[in-house]
Amino acid sequence: AQSVTQLDSQVPVFEEAPVELRCNYSSSVSVYLFWYVQYPNQGLQLLLKYLSGSTLVKGINGFEAEFNKSQTSFHLRKPSVHISDTAEYFCAVRVDTGRRALTFGSGTRLQVQP
Amino acid sequence: NAGVTQTPKFQVLKTGQSMTLQCAQDMNHEYMSWYRQDPGMGLRLIHYSVGAGITDQGEVPNGYNVSRSTTEDFPLRLLSAAPSQTSVYFCASRGGPTGNQPQHFGDGTRLSIL
User: What is the DSSP pairing of strand B43-51 with strand B31-37?
Assistant: First the structure.
């Protein structure tokens, strides 16, 4: 079975600073990788996804992530954050067998301070 | 665009009561699923369905029932509510049989069991 580890439960950062949210996964088969964002009292919204091809994936709101197969990582980055980026971010993986359901990490709360 | 609609948004129950959380999608998606979100644990899969008439268990199915009589609807039933079922519940859907399709999430139902 696959699993996802988000190493930081909270990441405080000042506005306009760069940020990296870390995600590592384990799986015995190839995976699809996703990052979702959850604003307060809302559902999850897809930020970006890696299916195949280029390992650098660009998403919405200026976010990007890089798939590193050797390190089994899929870290999320943004060069300059805004107050409006304050939210919880979830990394998730899915394999193309069995349930084909998402397995989520425990989430990272990004707190952007003025 | 309605997407995935969950009702109710909030609910308070007493231990032992039963209730049904409603989920409907208007995207003609075959795959639907229910997750619960608890602090520090990300989202965990309760039940899922790959089409009308077909359901299966996820990671944490105990205490919950589902059915899928139509493509659009996927209700989640709590048979006898317990305080451990206090959580935020999310319904999601996606199209296609393969695992590379992104999930679309509802806004969640916040359930408290007293």
Answer: antiparallel
What's the pLDDT score for residue B96?
67
Cα A7 to chain centroid distance, Å, stands at 11
Q: Which of B101, B96, B108 is nearest to B51 (CA)?
A: B96
Residue keyed to tokens 């999930």 = B103
Which pLDDT belongs to residue B99?
A: 61
| Distance (Å, whole) CA A103 – CA A93 | 5
Sign (positive or negative) of CA dihedral B65, B92, B15, B42: positive
Distances (CA, A) of A54 to A50, A62, A65, A68, A90: 8, 17, 11, 11, 21
Task: State the best of A102, A104, A106, A108 to mutate against chain B, taking most chain B CBs within 10 Å.
Answer: A102
Chain B interface residues (partner A, CB cutoff 8 A): 4, 31, 33, 35, 40-45, 48, 56, 58, 90, 92, 97-100, 102-103, 105-108
pLDDT given at position B42: 87
- pLDDT tens digit string along B100-112? 677 899 999 999 9
Q: Could you give the CA distance from residue A112 to residue A91 in angstroms, rounded to a whole number? A: 19
Report strand pairing: A87-95 vs A103-104: antiparallel
